[in-house]
Amino acid sequence: xxxxxxxxxxxxxxxxxxxxxxxxxxxxxxxxxxxxxxxxxxxxxxxxxxxxxxxxxxxxxxxxxxxxxxxxxxxxxxxxxxxxxxxxxxxxxxxxxxxxxxxxxxx
Amino acid sequence: xxxxxxxxxxxxxxxxxxxxxxxxxxxxxxxxxxxxxxxxxxxxxxxxxxxxxxxxxxxxxxxxxxxxxxxxxxxxxxxxxxxxxxxxxxxxxxxxxxxxxxxxxxxxxxxxxxx
Lengths: 107, 115
Prior knowledge:
heterodimer, A: 7-stranded mixed beta sheet, 4-stranded antiparallel beta sheet, globular, B: mainly beta
C-alpha cells in the first residue's frame, strides 16, 4: 500500500503570502497525484489532478507540480477563503490513498 | 453534478446498513463511482469503487467481506451495503463521481456505530 505523507501538518501564513504544501509518496506514483481542498462542514473539492492540471473552475493561484514521489501544491497569494485543509491522493495503485492533510491557518 | 446520499443513521455493532446515492446532472454510465468516508475529526479514506458497467469493484482491506458496492445504471444510483459494522466504521460517507479522480461529491451522510 502506498503511504502519502503531507508536510507540514499545519502551515501558518498571512493573507497574500505564498503557500507551498508538500506530499511525499512511499513509492513512485508517476503523475497520478491529485489535490483536494476541504472547507469546514463541506465535502472536499478537487483542485489539481494528475499532479499539475487545475480542475474546472479552480483559480489560477492554485498550481501543482512534481512527479514520482515528491509533489507540491502552491498557492501563489493566499486569499482569506484558502485557510482550510488540503489533502493529496494517489491513484497509481489500489488501494488508492490520501495523505493525512495539511491545515493552512492564518498567522 | 448532483449526488444525494441517504440511508445513514445509528446502528449497533454487528448490525447492517445500506447507503444509497441518487445521481443526476451527468451521464452516470460514463463514470466509475466511489464511496469515501471520513471519521469525525479525521482524514479521508477510500472505501470502495465500481466500474461503469459494474464488472470491476475494489474495496479497502478493512471492509472486504463486510461491505458491498453496487450500482443501478437504469436508476442512476449507487449503493453501499454495510454488514458486520464496527465502531471504527463510524464516519461521514460520501458518494463520489470518479474511480481515481474524484471530481464530484455528495454532501455526505453520517453513519454511527454504537451501542
